[in-house]
Every structure is written in C-alpha cells, then in structure tokens.
Structure to design on (762 residues):
C-alpha cells in the first residue's frame, strides 16, 4: 500500500445544534477540510457515524452528505459504533493507499441532541450486545460501571483517584474553541458530582453532542518531505462484543493488538509517542487504554494521572484538546475529532496546550466496551 | 491495486427466520463461504447491513458477527442502505487490493421480520431523505410509485407491460433453493394482485426477508489462471438523495456512471455481459437499470422483458436466481446475494437457470431511489 498523508482538517464546535441538521454539520466540517487542503472536491467520501438511522431517521448518509456538500462523489458510511470515526479513516486509507482513489474525505458526524435523552441512552446501548447484555437491562454506562467497580476492587483505587483524568481534560478544553465544555473542574467538584451508575458519576462520563470533523487524505509521495503528516500506522482489532465473554474484562485486548500492530507499522514504541488522543468515554477507559498500549503497568493507569504525566507538559500528554470528556463525544464523529486534534498537535497549532515539538501522535478509537478498537499513528516528516 | 478474486461463496435461505438471530444467520453464511473456500479464517470482515440499529437494536455488528462466527478478526459494517452489500465488497476489495489484508470475508446480512411490518416500512424509509421526502409523508414504495407512474406516462407503457420482469424472476426462483418465494406467477395474477402504492402492486414489489450471504476474496495472483473468478470492475456513484432534486428522475445517473466505470475497468461493454443481476426492488427499477447500463434505449426497458430477452436463454439474462422479486430482498444483504449468484453462474452451478457458457457477469446494487449505485463486473478467466 502506498503511503498516505493528511493535508486538510475541519471540525465544528460540539454543541446542541438544534438549528442545524446532520447534513449541515457534516458539510461544514467537509468545507473546512477542503479549504484547509486547498481542494475543491475529492474522489470519495468515507463517513463515520453510528446512530443516524435511530436518532435522525436517516440511513444512506453517504449521498445525503455528499449531495448537501455540493460534491457528487461516491460516499459510503462506515459503522463501528463509537469507533466509527477511526474505522472511516481506515476505509479511506485503504481506498487511497490501494490507488483506487487519488483523494478522499474522511468524515465523522453525529447529531444526538434532537431526541429525548432516554432515546439516546437506548441508541448508545446498541453498541453493546443487544441479546445478552442490553436485553438483561443494562445500559452502556452500566457496563462501564461494572468495569470501573471491578478495576477499583482489583487494583485498590478509590474513586477520587480517577479525578485527574477529568481535571486534565477540562483544563485542556478551555483552550479548544471547538470543545463542548469550557469550564475547569476541581477534585471537590469531581467527588461531589451526581451519580450516574455507581461508581461512575457525571464527571467520570463524557457528554454527548452534535458535531462533525473531517480529514482530507492524499498519496504522500505527491507531497514534499519535511512537513507532511503521514498515516504511519493503522490497525483495527476485534474483541468479544459482550463484556462477560472476555477472560479478563479489565484488559483491552483489542487495544493491545491494534496498538502493537500500529507501533510495528510506524516503527515506533510507546516511548516515541509525543501525544496520545485516547478514548476517555469514562475515566476508567483512559486507565485501561494507557495500560493496554504500554504506557503503564496493569492496574497502574491512574498513577500517571495522579503524577501529572498526562498534561501537555507531561511524559505522555493525553486529551490535549479536551478529550471525549470535555471536547465532547458525538459518538460516530469522535474518532475523526481525535485525528484532527493529533494533526493540530503535529502542526503546532494548539497554543496553550501545545505539546512541545510534537512529531509523532497516536489516536485510539473504541467501539463498544472494547469490542472494536482502532489505533492510528501519525508522523510529521 | 492488485487484482482480487472470489474463491468462496455462502448464503442462507431467505425466509422469516424467527428462531434465529442476526448473528446466527450471518455466521451461517460465513461458515458456508469458508468451507467453500477451504479456509478457516480471514484477515478482515466487511459487513453490509442497513437497519440492524433500528430493527435489531444492534450496532457494532462487526464484532458481534466475528465473535459469534468464532473469528477474532477485525470487522466493520459498511452502510449504503439497500446498496450496502455492494459497498461492502468495494471496501473488502480495496483492503485486499491494497495489500493491507491478504484475505477478507465480505458479508451481507439483514434480519427484518422480527418487528411489525409498520416498523420495517419506517426503517426502509431511512434510505430516502428524512427531512425533505419522508417527513412529507411518503414511504419508500411511494417514491418508487412516483417513478413508475411518471415512467408509464412519459413512455406510454401500461401496467401489464411490466409483468414479464416479475414472471421471469419467479420462474427462475423455482430452481434456487435459497429463494424466498417458490411459486410461479401468471400475467393474470400480476394484474389482479393487491395494490400497494398505485401503480405498484404486490407483484411489482420485492419481498423483505431474513438472510445473509458471504464472499471470500483473495489476491488473484495466488490462483491458477483459467477458472479464477476475478473482480474485473468495481465502481460506485452517488446521485442526489432526494428524487425531486434530480433533473431527470427517470434516468439512473449513478447507474450510468458506475456501470461505465466498471465496463472501462473490465475492458468490456454491455454486449459482453453474459448475465446481469440487477436491483429489481420494483419492476420499474429493472427497466431503469437496463436503460442506464446500455442494454436498452431510454424508455424501452420493458420491451426486453416482453420480448423474452431477459430469461436465462435470452440475450441479457437477469434475475437468474429469482432477483430481489422472488429470491427476496433482505436489504443490506441483497448486494452480496447478487454477487454470490453471479459467481454461481460463472461456475456453471445454476442447473435449469444456467446461462450457457457464462463467463462475464455483472451485479448492480442500489441504495435509496438511485442515490448510491454500485456496479461490479466478475470475469471467469
């Protein structure tokens, strides 16, 4: 496969965009990416989205978005639940890498706030096993609560030990104009926030939202070396869909597999990663990702947060633009937001949360409670 | 992109499979394709599906199906409404063609009969424009009824002139053990059948159903020339999602574009196609496809049917295994069924509906009322 690079990025502010439709926010991100890339169209569009069929009564999102954006270009939707954005980049990468297309737009879009929150909760649960998890009465946050409780029990952490994941995310989001939440939080607020599903409270959890993000990709050999943003590693891995089927529910096997494959492709290891946009849907997921990807020993993820290693000045900066926690989590779009943010870091566009001399960045996108995990490594070179 | 071939096929009988879940029928088709290919696993799974989120309360279909099939392999869902099956093959083709994967399973699956027909009608309508078509009160069959009525008016056909499309499909399905409907129909029955949305009656329309089909693909250069089934052409094209936005709603522009691109790739023209599995969701769509793909002049599609040109012995055999009309139309799976059937023809496995010496076959899969159209050409060589 020929090397592929990202030459354009676009994103909308994550919000409750009641005055806009899903096609509008997708087209906004597309036009921003086209402008950034200095292009007018693309040979194909790969759309990451999870729940348009349920929440927006709209499948066939490809032509809907291509049409509204004014691009009569083949367009297809790729779905891997909350991992849809990363899956869309993988599809676009293979299309351009194979030579089948010369250019592609990779778009993540989700419009979640037009329905009652109960309906959104039901839609989110479609990421889990409908027959053997959801039909038993558990919600998606409930599944994550089982993970967090077990993690605390096994490794001896208390709830407050997870606070720094959220505090760091909120602090970073203050400097991201596209973030959903623009307020810092304190340890006291973290501990006192409303309980959602014990032990997960409001400040452990990422907010939903409406948003779209886009990448413009081309063959790397057409670009001048030095400031290219290459897709140096790309890998997906699959675990059981149901949490209870995993021999060790506290180990993200698919994160391990996909990160190892991506490291190998990129010729790097965890120590080389300058910035890591991970999938902090819930604070405990940050710990599990850091461990599975080789940044911490098993059960020691929270230590990195407590020791301040995850800030933009730390040894492994994460959620530098706010993460899912404070930038927001428009589920099918999130994976593309992560990649846009890594590009911003590698370009040095992140102002107060810029990681000094960031050259290699990683984004990891998770669908379900670890069922589909897609890892990308980007390199400036 | 390196050439890719199909070495295994599998399918389930299209039915009301109330005793099976969506993961079970998908795994059945996968295991049949693996057995046919003489393989035990694959490097990736590409799943075509449209409505699992709405009808089966299940997104994240990739790991659900991979898990149940006993394959811990990366798996992703591709959605282009009723064109999802063809879109899944295109995704798999680019993955194997690019060298990113060595083998892939392409699966189409849909489980539609577990809910009330009203819910299925609502789910089918998500293939159209939710805001500007469906919210106005029109259903998906209603949109096709507008097309058919206009077609009859513009070109002077009467309803009975479309009967031969359905009669041919039912006659061919008699010899396909996987078909949903196993009964022949007459012109009189066609004319007297229940009205659905004037002028579309029950025998103009394809039945929904539960079904899964699968293809196993590998690089062609690993195979011995002579009896390989090559994917010689593959192209997708997009039109407006809404019917009313098209300058000419009786011309399938995306069918024209994608078939022209596929012809060019394969180095063939309409006259070289030995068998054509087209997307006869409604009889009028057969006419439009035949015209857009160069088999008939504008407005003259029904003439081919009336003259007996579409039977297995005719000049351009279509729906040789029953088509959507009688084999059945499990929407997101249909595109893969079409491809499986073309492979069966090229292998000479079709018994009484075998097209003599079939060597080049085409499959065309449509998402929405012509919004996404994907054309594949397969060649035995």
């Amino acid at each position: 496969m020929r090397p592929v690079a990202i030459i354009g990025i676009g994103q909308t502010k994550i919000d409750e965009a009641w005055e806009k439709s899903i096609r509008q926010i997708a087209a906004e991100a597309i036009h921003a990416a086209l402008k950034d890339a200095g292009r007018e169209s693309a040979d194909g569009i790969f759309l990451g989205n999870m729940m348009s069929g349920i929440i927006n009564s709209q499948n066939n999102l490809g032509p809907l978005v291509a049409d509204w954006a004014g691009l009569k270009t083949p367009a297809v939707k790729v779905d891997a639940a909350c991992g849809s954005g990363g899956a869309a980049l993988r599809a676009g990468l293979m299309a351009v890498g194979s030579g089948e297309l010369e250019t592609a737009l990779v778009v993540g879009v989700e419009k979640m706030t037009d329905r009652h929150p109960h309906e959104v909760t039901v839609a989110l649960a479609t990421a889990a096993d409908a027959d053997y998890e959801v039909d038993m009465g558990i919600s998606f946050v409930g599944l994550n609560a089982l993970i967090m409780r077990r993690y605390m029990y096994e490794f001896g952490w208390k709830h407050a030990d997870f606070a720094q994941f959220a505090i760091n995310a909120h602090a970073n989001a203050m400097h991201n104009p596209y973030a959903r939440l623009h307020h810092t939080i304190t340890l006291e607020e973290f501990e006192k926030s409303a309980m959602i599903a014990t032990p997960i409270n409001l400040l452990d959890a990422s907010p939903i939202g409406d948003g779209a993000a886009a990448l413009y990709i081309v063959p790397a050999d057409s670009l001048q070396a030095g400031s290219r943003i290459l897709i140096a590693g790309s890998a997906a891995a699959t675990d059981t869909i149901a949490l209870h089927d995993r021999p060790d529910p506290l180990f993200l096997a698919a994160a391990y597999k996909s990160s190892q494959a991506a490291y190998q492709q990129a010729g790097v290891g965890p120590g080389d990663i300058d910035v890591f946009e991970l999938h902090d849907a819930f604070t405990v997921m940050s710990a599990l990702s850091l461990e599975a990807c080789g940044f911490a020993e098993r059960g020691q993820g929270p230590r990195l947060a407590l020791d301040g290693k995850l800030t933009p000045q730390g040894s492994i900066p994460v959620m530098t633009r706010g993460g899912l926690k404070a930038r927001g989590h428009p589920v099918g779009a999130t994976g593309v937001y992560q990649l846009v943010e890594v590009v911003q870091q590698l370009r040095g566009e992140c102002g107060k949360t810029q990681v000094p001399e960031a050259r290699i960045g990683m984004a990891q996108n998770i669908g379900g409670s670890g069922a589909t995990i897609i890892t990308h490594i980007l390199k400036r070179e």
